């Protein structure tokens, strides 16, 4: 395997109990101008799941699935909650790790999905500690595509009808952030569309699919990518829908709340047959992809001008 002596799984982090929820959310939105009401609403989503985000267990499961695949130690650190990346890197240094591949749990270009992980790497890196090399975007990698296609197929089978439409979903982001994603802009959406098309092709489908957005945050006066998945379901002429959360790598809170609770409830009200495809999670082909990424030539870091941080607004 390449010349890495460890893998660092770098993730978002999430609360592990009711008392963690508000401090976690404060970490996430520090300086990002997310209105208080939105924060309290999202806190309720977490509290309705006992204050526990599924993302941490998902990451633990991914690490267990990766162990037999890799011949180097695997470390885990987060941006917004324990185990914090800062602490993990100190352990890696103490263990004598010199150069680690960084697998960020986010597949596509953009500030939130890519640049912010570079910022994390810069912040947590320490003198005499491991060099941290971020792996490339993987939303169009055959391993990711095959895992998503497999899960979409299973959801189609559960629904049991061949007239269902594939409706891909991804996290909405501010329009300004979408416009500055990638070296020449628009790369978040462009990569998502290519990935969705590859999944559709892998299923041998020629029917049209759609890409819609979910989990909008931020102040209402700032435009974010649309249409929202719920608005889309209200208007769709599709006789049945399979939601494919292509923009997420595991079934975390946005997926289990915004899709499995909200979208499902709406579909039931509308009488619209709907299933949700699983995310890549620990699909064996996805797990193998991590090893394949580590065996590739060391990826060049994105240019610093790429996916700039949004202008900060006070809450
Ligand atoms: C593109 C994207 C991804 C996908 C790529 C990736 O996976 O990295 C993603 C993932 C995630 N987002 C997550 C959670 C949150 N995101 C928030 C807020 C925001 N997300 C944004 C974008 C994205 N977010 C943006 C532009 C904001 C506005 C504030 C800001 O500019 O930062 C907020 C604040 C409250 C609110 O929702 O308003 C929370 C709690 C969790 C953890 C879930 C769990 O606990 O299971 C995960 C994996
Ligand atoms: Fe988010």
Automatic annotation (TrEMBL):
Pathways per UniProt: Porphyrin-containing compound metabolism; protoheme biosynthesis
Catalysis performed (reactions): Fe-coproporphyrin III + 2 H(+) = coproporphyrin III + Fe(2+)
Documented EC number(s): 4.99.1.9
PANTHER family (UniProt xref): FERROCHELATASE, FERROCHELATASE, MITOCHONDRIAL
Alphabetical keyword list: Cytoplasm, Heme biosynthesis, Iron, Lyase, Metal-binding, Porphyrin biosynthesis
One Pfam family hit: Ferrochelatase
Domain of life where this protein originates: Bacteria
The protein's name: Coproporphyrin III ferrochelatase
Iron in keyword set: yes
Binding site residues for Fe-coproporphyrin III: 53, 117
CDD domains, per the entry: Ferrochelatase_C, Ferrochelatase_N
Binding site for Fe(2+): 171, 254
Subcellular location(s) of the protein: Cytoplasm
Biological function: Involved in coproporphyrin-dependent heme b biosynthesis. Catalyzes the insertion of ferrous iron into coproporphyrin III to form Fe-coproporphyrin III.
Listed InterPro entries: Ferrochelatase, Ferrochelatase_AS, Ferrochelatase_C, Ferrochelatase_N
Keyword field contains Metal-binding: yes
Recorded family membership: Belongs to the ferrochelatase family.
């Amino acid at each position: 395997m390449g010349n890495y002596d460890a893998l660092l799984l770098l993730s978002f982090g999430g609360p592990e109990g009711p008392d963690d929820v508000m401090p976690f959310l404060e970490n996430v939105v520090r300086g990002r101008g997310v209105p208080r009401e939105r924060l309290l609403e999202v806190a309720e989503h977490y509290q309705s799941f006992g204050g526990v985000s599924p993302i941490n267990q998902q990451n633990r499961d991914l690490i267990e699935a990766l162990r037999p695949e890799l011949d180097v130690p695997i470390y885990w650190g987060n941006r917004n909650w324990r185990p914090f990346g800062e602490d993990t890197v100190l352990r890696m240094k103490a263990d004598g790790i010199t150069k680690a591949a960084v697998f960020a749990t986010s597949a596509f270009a953009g500030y939130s999905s890519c640049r912010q992980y570079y910022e994390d790497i810069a912040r947590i890196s320490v003198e005499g500690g491991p060099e941290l090399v971020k792996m490339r975007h993987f939303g169009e990698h055959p391993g990711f595509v095959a895992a998503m296609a497999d899960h979409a197929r299973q959801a189609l089978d559960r629904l049991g009808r061949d007239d269902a439409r594939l409706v891909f979903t991804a996290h909405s982001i501010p329009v300004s952030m979408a416009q500055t994603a990638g070296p020449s802009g628009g790369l978040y959406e462009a990569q998502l569309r290519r990935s969705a098309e590859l999944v559709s092709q892998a299923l041998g489908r020629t029917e049209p699919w759609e890409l819609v957005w979910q989990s909008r945050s931020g102040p209402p006066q700032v435009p974010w990518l649309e249409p929202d998945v719920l608005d889309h379901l209200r208007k769709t002429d599709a006789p049945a829908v399979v939601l494919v959360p292509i923009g997420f790598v595991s079934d975390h809170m946005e997926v289990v709340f915004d899709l499995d609770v909200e979208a499902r409830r709406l579909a039931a009200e509308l009488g619209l047959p709907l299933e949700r495809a699983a995310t890549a999670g620990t699909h064996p082909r996805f797990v193998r992809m991590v090893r394949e990424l580590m065996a590739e030539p060391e990826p060049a870091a994105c240019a610093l001008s790429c996916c700039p941080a949004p202008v900060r607004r006070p809450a």
